[in-house]
Amino acid sequence: MTAYVEIFEVGPRDGLQNEQCQISVVDKISLVNCLSRAGFRRIECASFVSPKRVPQMADSALVLDGIHRDPHVAYAALTPNMRGYRDAVQAGVDEIAVFGSASEGFSRANINATISESLDRFRPVVEAARLADIPVRGYVSCVIECPYEGRVSPDDVADVADRLFAMGCSEISLGDTIGRGTPESITQMLMAVAERIPTEKLAGHYHDTGRRALENIDASLDVGVRIFDTAIGGLGGCPFAPGSAGNVATERVVRHVESHGYVTGLDLLVIDEAAKQASGLRG
Ligand code: HMG
Ligand code: MG
Q1: What's 81's DSSP letter?
Q2: Does ligand 1 have an atom closer than 6 angstroms to the CB of 48?
Q3: In the predicted model, is pLDDT for residue 283 greater than 90?
Q4: How far is it, in rounded angstroms, from Cα 5 to Cα 57?
């Protein structure tokens, strides 16, 4: 097992999407530019979804157009359908993500589709990205609990994850969207998914609502997961998951895993500077 842990920064997307006050394009660009100096391989900084549903992300193309592109960083965006895909490609995105759910209730609330309909929508997106040589991440939300349906079974998570992986997603990010996971439930869920997908293709995406995200990361490391999604300053939440707090904070995760002997390759001075910027943006 390698000692390298990739921290996938999602603050400019998952973090900012939930802020009620409109944040200026200039401030968003400035945050991404700061994060670009920290040593991340990938930063999720845009989302090509309906501006009526997520107004904060309506200026995603302007953000991608305005940032200083570090050639060592891949700039990623959410693309729920072909329209989002085309807009993202036009904006010069390096990596895209489709996002599904392990629970029907959240799928309906988030993207207005059943799980099966959502997979049908993703298929042409993944295929177009494959032809264009653009990596696709597949998110699975509500891997522990759903705000509308309660407990979600690990088998249901494994099933959706497997279908996204079989479709051509190169990595599956497992979202504890409302932060109800415990080391026990996270381990159980990961074991079910790992029966079908190699652990090196999995990422842990843990919201910190229950304040157990760091413990959940430890449990995931024990299972062999080496990629974790975090948001600078602990920004965020999901507008369609009542009660979801921010993703676990990047600066806490970096310190935590490094204190356990893992290497992230990240510059904590820059990360702390970005965390300061992020807290200034909070409404
Ligand atoms: P729909 O509701 O099925 O309806 O959209 P539609 O396809 O008929 O479109 C509705 C309206 O959206 C139309 O506009 C379309 O033109 C427009 P109107 O006629 O009403 O003016 N539209 C678009 N506009 C811009 N870009 C597009 C696009 N597509 C349609 N790509 C859709 C389905 C998914 C688009 C919609 O439901 C939506 O945008 N939902 C928001 C989903 C979202 O962004 N959720 C938050 C991110 S997911 C998350 O945070 C979880 C995650 O972090 C993991 C975790 O924590 O678990 C990833
Ligand atoms: Mg999230």
Answers
A1: S
A2: yes
A3: no
A4: 28
